[in-house]
């Protein structure tokens, strides 16, 4: 009797477990589907509405009654191509220069032990607590004295982005901290200079973090509104996509520009999103590392 | 033994006072939090008072009844004693530790500041002594170097260093004579003469002549002070170089040549090369503007006093802080005082940061765990869908979603079309609706980040922990509570803090979604338009871009933002570890 029970019980428990697991998994699937739908709706809507021809304002349905590329064609009659080019150039130059600066900074703070290291890091932590926006007031006036605002906003904007990018060293410093120091020391013993250590040993190992830094630096300018708005200061030729498209949703423009905003949004989002998706692996590594290191 | 008991009794009297203070503080905190949320959604103040009391009274009663026991544990400093406490007592104990930690924290802070001043004073004294003794004991080359920088280096054959020192001195003296002196001398007044109308006899018209420029005086004044500090530092280095060189020569060794100096810049001095560019950028584009803007808070720089083309601006002392922190209402009838407006915006900023951080944190963790669960397929696919909100620039998604929820937006029109509602839902028109919608939409933006972060960390939790928990018969909730959550909190504690302060300054989400709307009419006349969803940071932006461009007010707000963020960070950094260690211990 007891032996029989012994045989049955685990079996029964197993069955119960299995059933409850299927139930749990099914509910999780339902939940994930609901979440996915919520997450996708806005993007599907914006894509569909960018093809709508019959009206240019907000309507209560999603599927266009008349499909067409009118909105995309109209974009080229506006300043949109200029904004796009502005943003693209800014993003490209920023990606290169910012990566160099951030890597210099984080590598130094991770690898070298010099007297001012700790005070420097603490100082930058405190600096970071000031709202960066505040400095725009003065930077705008200085840059406008140098002639780097309004229609010449692109170089000015690049300068602003890269100049203080050294403050964002945390994530890559965390990465460099994980590369064993014994590698450096071995090379130093063999007579390599510090520069050679960086070039021949550290950089080849740092591909993930380099890509992460380039990716975030490249994506930053596409979404920046505040600095771009200050520096372009109402001059259409100097705007980036964010500032330009934001203005299209003003009360007096939205009725005629709404679907064009959608089309512009799609044109901006697709290349950036594709790039991001391709390099997603590196982004995840960087973000996770950064959060754990603090 | 008796001694011990005595001490406990003596400590008991003091501790009661502390307990009362602590409980009162806690009560205020709860009232502020509950009142803040409730008044935000339009519930009268007395109701939030009652709700706060419901939360507060049992807590206070609990504190009073078991205070002595808990305080004894606290005083003993033996963390193992906490194991004997009940769950309820443990909660109160950790609260008590935070409250009791605050005075100690401020005491330590004061001590640290005092120590910093003392050590700075000692360092200056040491440097001065060193400078004098180097002068007295040095040879004539060293002595000349005190006036002509780099002379010692040149005379001892270190040409490169000598030339650089000398060049720096020449540039400095030249700059000070040519312009530096003017900026410095004008700094106390920020300019004497504004623009004047002058009659031009040749052209027979009135022309405006521009004179002093307050903006430039302040800017270059600060730069000149930076330059002087740099000069003093370099001069000190110059003296030190002489001292070192004398010592090296006395011991019979050779000095470094210029070539070796250059080589060391890619070797043992490589960090200087690497840091030169980033630090220069930070100095000019971050430190200088911040110093400038802090100073602006003490002037009357605004749209009508722009310092050059209309009126000069000048120092006004602490007037702006007085304005911002005074409770007297403005002149325009029912205009609210600045302090009241600031308080409202600050409390919403804190509430927002709290909800934005923790809703994202827990929901993100939940989604990550759901996707990570064994037996769920298409893990990568689910993640990719969520990650879309990161991949697509925020201004597109946020602006679009903001319009979706507008009065005539997609959602309202759809709901009306389906006949589910008669009138458009006031997503952005009603303060409460707007606040809740913003928090909900922020979840849409924020979950993917948290999902990515937590996925990585969840995978690091040793699987055998769960294994043994399951053998002990722990269910899923218990496993989460005892293993996952403590581990996550321990690892992501610092991240939670940065994300809290980051959310306080989350300009993009608020500005692109609501632009601060709906407008708060009572607060608005105080300083431009202020809305119910405005954070301090968007308010600051509106002040600077508003019609009056009250830059001085924006600086005051900026400084206050800094103070709030710094205080929160300091307190959390110093108080949190005790809780964290405890959790680690459990």
Short description:
Chain A has 294 residues and is an all-alpha fold. Chain A has helices spanning 2-49, 70-75, 80-111, 117-127, 134-145, 153-163, 170-178, 181-189, 194-205, 207-223, 226-232, 241-248, 254-278, 280-293. Mean pLDDT of chain A is 82; it is low at 1-12.
Structural class of chain B: mainly alpha
Instruction: Based on the coordinates given, report the CATH architecture of the largest domain in chain A.
Output: Orthogonal Bundle
- Please report the total strand number of chain A as a whole number: 0
CATH homolog superfamily of the largest domain in chain A: MetI-like
The assigned CATH architecture of the largest domain in chain B is Orthogonal Bundle
Overall 3D shape of chain A: globular
Indicate the radius of gyration of chain A in whole angstroms. Answer: 26 Å
CATH fold type of the largest domain in chain A = MetI-like fold
Compute the separation of the termini of chain B in Å: 31 Å
Task: Describe the largest sheet of chain A.
Answer: none
Question: Overview of this structure, please?
Answer:
The complex is a heterodimer of chains A (294) and B (586). Chain A contains 14 helices and no strands. Chain A has helices spanning 2-49, 70-75, 80-111, 117-127, 134-145, 153-163, 170-178, 181-189, 194-205, 207-223, 226-232, 241-248, 254-278, 280-293. In chain A, helix 3 (80-111) crosses helix 7, helix 8 (181-189) runs antiparallel to helix 9 and helix 10 crosses helix 14 (280-293). The longest helix of chain A has 48 residues, at 2-49. Chain A is globular and about 75 Å long. By secondary structure, chain B is mainly α. Chain B has 3 domains: 2-107, no CATH class; 146-317, no CATH class; 338-585, MetI-like (MetI-like fold), CATH 1.10.3720.10. The chains are: A mainly alpha (294), B mainly alpha (586). At the A-B interface, helix 1, helix 3, helix 4, helix 5 and helix 6 of A face helix 9, helix 11, helix 12, helix 13 and helix 14 of B.
């Amino acid at each position: 009797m007891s032996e029989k029970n012994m045989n049955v019980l685990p079996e029964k428990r197993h069955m119960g477990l299995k059933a409850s697991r299927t139930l749990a998994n099914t509910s999780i699937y339902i939940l994930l589907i609901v979440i996915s739908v919520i997450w996708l709706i806005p993007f599907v809507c914006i894509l569909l509405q960018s093809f709508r021809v019959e009206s240019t304002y907000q309507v209560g349905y999603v599927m266009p009654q008349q499909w067409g590329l009118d909105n995309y064609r109209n974009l080229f009659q506006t300043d949109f191509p200029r904004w796009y080019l502005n943003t693209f150039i800014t993003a490209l130059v920023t990606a290169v220069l910012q990566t160099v600066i951030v890597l210099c900074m984080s590598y130094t703070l991770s690898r070298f032990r010099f007297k001012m290291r700790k005070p420097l890091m603490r100082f930058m932590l405190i600096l970071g607590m000031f709202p960066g926006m505040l400095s725009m007031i003065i930077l705008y006036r200085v840059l406008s004295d140098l002639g780097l605002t309004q229609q010449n906003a692109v170089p000015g904007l690049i300068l602003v982005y890269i100049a203080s990018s050294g403050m964002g060293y945390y994530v890559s410093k965390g990465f460099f901290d994980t590369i064993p120091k014994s590698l450096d020391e071995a090379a130093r013993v063999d007579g390599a200079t510090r520069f050679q250590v960086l070039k021949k040993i550290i950089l080849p190992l740092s591909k993930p973090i380099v890509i992460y830094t380039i990716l975030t630096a490249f994506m930053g300018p596409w979404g920046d509104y505040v600095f771009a708005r200050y520096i372009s200061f109402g001059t259409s030729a100097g705007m980036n996509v964010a500032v330009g498209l934001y203005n299209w949703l003003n009360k007096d423009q939205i009725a005629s520009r709404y679907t064009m905003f959608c089309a512009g949004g799609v044109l901006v989002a697709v290349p950036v999103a594709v790039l991001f998706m391709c390099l997603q692996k590196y982004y995840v590594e960087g973000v996770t590392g950064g959060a754990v290191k603090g | 033994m008796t001694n011990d008991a005595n001490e406990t009794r003596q400590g008991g009297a003091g501790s009661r006072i502390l307990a009362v203070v602590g409980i009162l503080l806690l009560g205020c905190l709860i009232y502020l939090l509950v009142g803040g949320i409730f008044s935000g959604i339009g519930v009268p103040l007395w109701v939030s008072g009652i709700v706060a009391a419901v939360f507060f009274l049992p807590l206070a009663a609990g504190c009073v009844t078991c205070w002595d026991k808990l305080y004894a544990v606290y005083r003993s400093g033996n963390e193992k004693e906490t194991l004997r406490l009940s769950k309820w007592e443990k909660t109160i104990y950790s609260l008590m530790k935070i409250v009791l930690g605050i005075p100690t924290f401020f005491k330590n802070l004061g001590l640290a500041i005092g120590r910093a001043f003392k050590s700075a004073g000692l360092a200056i004294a040491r440097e001065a002594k060193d400078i004098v003794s180097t002068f007295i004991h040095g040879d004539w080359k060293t002595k000349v170097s005190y006036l002509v920088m780099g002379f010692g280096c040149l005379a001892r054959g270190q040409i490169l260093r000598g030339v650089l020192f000398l060049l720096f001195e020449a540039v400095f003296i030249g700059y000070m004579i040519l312009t530096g002196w003017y900026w410095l001398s004008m700094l106390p007044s920020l300019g004497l003469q504004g623009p004047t109308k002058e009659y031009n006899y040749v052209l027979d018209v009135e022309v405006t002549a521009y004179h002093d420029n307050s903006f430039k005086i302040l800017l270059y004044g600060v730069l000149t002070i930076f330059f002087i500090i740099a000069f003093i530092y370099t001069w000190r280095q110059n003296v030190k170089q002489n001292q070192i060189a004398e010592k090296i020569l006395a011991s019979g060794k050779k000095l470094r040549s210029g070539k070796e100096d250059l080589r060391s810049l890619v070797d043992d001095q490589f960090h200087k090369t690497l840091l030169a560019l980033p630090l220069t950028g930070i100095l000019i584009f971050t430190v200088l503007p911040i110093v400038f803007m802090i100073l602006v808070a003490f002037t009357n720089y605004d749209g009508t006093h722009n310092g050059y083309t209309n009126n000069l601006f000048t120092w006004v002392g602490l007037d702006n802080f007085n304005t911002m922190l005074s409770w007297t209402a403005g002149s325009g009838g029912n205009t609210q005082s600045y302090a009241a407006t600031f308080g409202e915006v600050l409390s919403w900023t804190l509430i927002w940061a709290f909800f934005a951080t923790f809703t994202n944190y827990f929901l993100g963790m939940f989604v990550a765990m759901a996707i990570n669960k064994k037996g769920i397929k298409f893990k990568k696919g689910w993640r990719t869908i969520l990650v879309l909100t990161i991949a697509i620039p925020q201004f597109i998604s946020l602006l679009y979603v903001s319009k979706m929820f507008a009065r005539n937006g997609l959602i309202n029109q759809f709901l009306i079309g389906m006949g589910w509602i008669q009138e458009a839902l006031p997503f952005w028109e009603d303060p409460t609706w707007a606040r809740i919608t913003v928090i909900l939409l922020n979840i849409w933006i924020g979950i993917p980040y948290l999902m990515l972060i937590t996925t990585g960390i969840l995978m690091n939790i040793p699987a055998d922990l769960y294994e043994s928990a399951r053998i002990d018969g722990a269910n899923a909730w218990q496993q989460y509570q005892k293993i996952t959550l403590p581990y996550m909190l321990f690892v992501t504690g610092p991240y939670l803090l940065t994300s809290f302060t980051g959310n306080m300054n989350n300009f993009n989400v608020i500005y692109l979604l609501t632009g601060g709307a709906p407008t708060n009419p009572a607060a608005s006349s105080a300083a431009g338009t202020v809305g119910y969803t405005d954070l301090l940071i968007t308010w600051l932006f509106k002040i600077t871009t508003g019609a009056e461009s009250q830059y001085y007010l924006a600086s005051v707000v900026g400084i206050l933002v800094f103070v709030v963020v710094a205080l929160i960070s300091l307190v959390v950094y110093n108080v949190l570890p005790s809780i964290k260690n405890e959790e680690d211990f459990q």
